[in-house]
Design brief:
The protein contains 9 helices and no strands. With 129 residues, the chain is an all-alpha fold. It has a single domain, classed as Alpha-Beta Complex (set domain protein methyltransferase, domain 2). The longest helix is centred in the C-terminal third of the chain and has 24 residues. The radius of gyration is 18 Å and the shape is elongated.
């Protein structure tokens, strides 16, 4: 369901891998009985039209059902824990001109990428809270 990468791609305004996230949330939030029924009815292909008509914008994410929001929230927390530092530490480093300039160009670029990723993840936490 998630593809070879095993990850979802989030942007500032919407989920960029919305089909994969939609299907994953749908399946993971099903009861065992619902899943068996869905699988028996070959439901995997019956929903293609429904999936095409839904977009996972930030507004749509904030309106997900509670179990899906909790699953996303917990997943984001786990992802944030996998980083070596928190958002504030990244922000402090970006704001400290002296410390920032001591970083190599590659380290500076990595800092900007991590900071952007963490900001998007924190935004998602707020949306599904």
């Amino acid at each position: 369901m998630v593809g070879e990468e095993g990850a979802f791609v989030l942007g500032w305004d919407e989920v960029l891998t919305e089909e994969e996230l939609s299907m994953t949330l749908k399946v993971l939030c099903m009861s065992e009985e619902e899943f068996k029924e869905y699988k028996e009815q070959d439901g995997w292909e019956d929903d293609s039209e429904e999936e095409e008509n839904s977009t996972l914008s930030n507004e749509a994410l904030s309106k997900l059902k509670t179990p899906c929001k909790k699953l996303l929230y917990d997943s984001v927390l786990l992802t944030l824990e996998s980083y070596g530092s928190d958002l504030k530490a990244e922000q402090d480093l970006l704001n400290n001109k002296e410390a920032y300039e001591k970083l190599s160009r590659r380290e500076q670029q990595a800092l900007h990428v991590r900071y952007g990723q963490k900001r998007i993840l924190h935004q998602l936490l707020e949306l599904v809270r």
